[in-house]
Amino acid sequence: SLHRIKASGLKLQLCTNETQATRESFVRKLRALGFDISVAQVTAPAPAACHLLRERGLRPHLLVHHDLVPEFAEIDKTNPNCVVLGDAAENFTYANLNEAFRLLIGMEKPVLISLGKGRYYKETDGLKLDVGAYMKALEYACDIQAEVVGKPAKRFFESALAELGVPPEQAIMIGDDIVSDVGGAQRCGMRALQVRTGKFRPSDENHPEVKPDAYVNNLAEAVDIILQEL
Amino acid sequence: SLHRIKASGLKLQLCTNETQATRESFVRKLRALGFDISVAQVTAPAPAACHLLRERGLRPHLLVHHDLVPEFAEIDKTNPNCVVLGDAAENFTYANLNEAFRLLIGMEKPVLISLGKGRYYKETDGLKLDVGAYMKALEYACDIQAEVVGKPAKRFFESALAELGVPPEQAIMIGDDIVSDVGGAQRCGMRALQVRTGKFRPSDENHPEVKPDAYVNNLAEAVDIILQEL
Hints:
2 copies of one chain form a homodimer.
Chain A: H1 2-8, E1 14-15, H2 23-32, E2 42-43, H3 45-56, E3 60-63, E4 82-85, H4 94-105, E5 112-114, E6 120-123, E7 126-129, H5 131-142, E8 147-148, H6 154-164, E9 172-175, H7 178-187, E10 191-195, E11 214-216, H8 219-229
Parallel strand pairs in A: 1-2, 3-4, 4-5, 5-8, 9-10, 10-11
Antiparallel strand pairs in A: 6-7
Helix pairs in contact in A: 4-5
């Protein structure tokens, strides 16, 4: 399907909430699976966070996955004035959570930037709490609201559109997550198709707030429809 | 002050949200400090939880402090159909949190019982996230509401009153926490004094929702006032 999009001359951008790896290693994995994708074609929360940190002169304390740390290599992390939270997995220790909490509660105006707000996800050895759960813990303890930079944040889709160089009405989002993918893209002025694969659940078709522009059975069918419309 | 209360013939009950130790070891610590207190004079969240578990035929998976486990010795914990959450401290590991989460999300109607909802507390080596933060993490991940059995739950004060054998209008709560101690007791029909020690902060005197029946500088002054009124 990606080859057909490329051959048609359409532009393509991958929007992922992956925060357990750098874009480089994410792309390496995709290329090994046969997907012809470059790093510039990936919009991910960590680079979006770096953009925001630079813009506001923020120096983060990182509570993220080991493999994500290189994304923040160029960012000044001395004397932190905010906390950046990602899916830290094994780094979500009691000591690390207390450390992030102490830094936040010690700030005059605590700033917590979260790379997502997922509830949980599935790995081969079972379900795992996602970054959103730990975000809620820190929000409650500090009585603050985190700023979320991954999907479904409007800014996130805007930066993907900027990368593509097209206005929202000329872009179509294809995703399996009714809220993060479909809802987020639509709020940004894009059309959005939901695929009936991956995270899709039949109950999504009765979602109280989000209604995709269309459902498709899979990515191939989404590409068929888009190419027909051209 | 406790001696003076005892000498006056007044009944005394200690209401604590302590969940890092059994009542036995809590009382041992108090007695070592010179306080003449018995186990029956202590109302604490773990025994309250045991009462609730028995009443509803619930078999808990425990995510609590090692030293609290003996409080649940008599409770059937096979094939758990609920999770009991306390201030587990070092037991708040990534693995243990995922395990509690998986049990909850696997239940048809997840039941999470929390021994408190504190945000954080201070120890000699610094501030620590309290049970409330981890409760919020699990609530969010499972999209549920926990049942809180410690202060300020109404049930908790009711069980202290039952232990004393007096109606609420004949009891006075003395505490340093404006919400957990004063607010909780008042909602139960008791009068409540706030001491200006411990957790007390000057901003408590402008609390938007809770107003103590009186402020006192310390426990001794509270006892003075009570004995004068007799």
